[in-house]
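WARN no homologs supplied; continuing
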Amino acid sequence: MQKKHLYCLILLWLILASSSILFVMNYDFTPTPLPKKTALKSSSYQLYVFLHPYCPCSKATLHELEELLNKIKKSTYSTVKTKIIFFKSGQDTKNWEKGTLWKNVHQLNNVEVIIDSNGGLSKHYQAKTSGETMLFDKKGHRLFDGGITISRGHEGDNPGKEYIYRLVTQEKTNRIDSPVFGCPLFGKTK
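OK structure emitted
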């Protein structure tokens, strides 16, 4: 009888452990749907990166962004104006957005950092997720809207970063969708 209870407990533990792993994997690999937007005309490509200052996933986005910008700089004469847009709700205290991620952003070269008070820019461009990255051509047409990490908080080769590189260097490429993995801009971070 005791062996039967032990087997039942082991089986129950395996079911709970498996369910927990599946839940985490589902969260890690579930993207946010991507809407369409346009930007102002410019003399160069424009790259917008929307971040929630306390999303732990965004550290990987910044690392991938730095690699992407360095790769573009080394291989093309095209310029990319990069804007990192930090979400800040109206209820947040003064300098709330200026945490570790803010300090990391200021170590990047040639990026403009914008505080998005009350989420006005995020709403205008319909950005919903920290790490959402948009590339616009010189006419302001959206060429890309997606993520530049392979999954939530993970660095490494990924289709979004490669697609942006190919667009800016004017290599032929097929249109891809690259899911965004990160915390919601308009809500609590995980």
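Helices lie at 2-28, 58-75, 100-105, 120-124, 159-168.
OK
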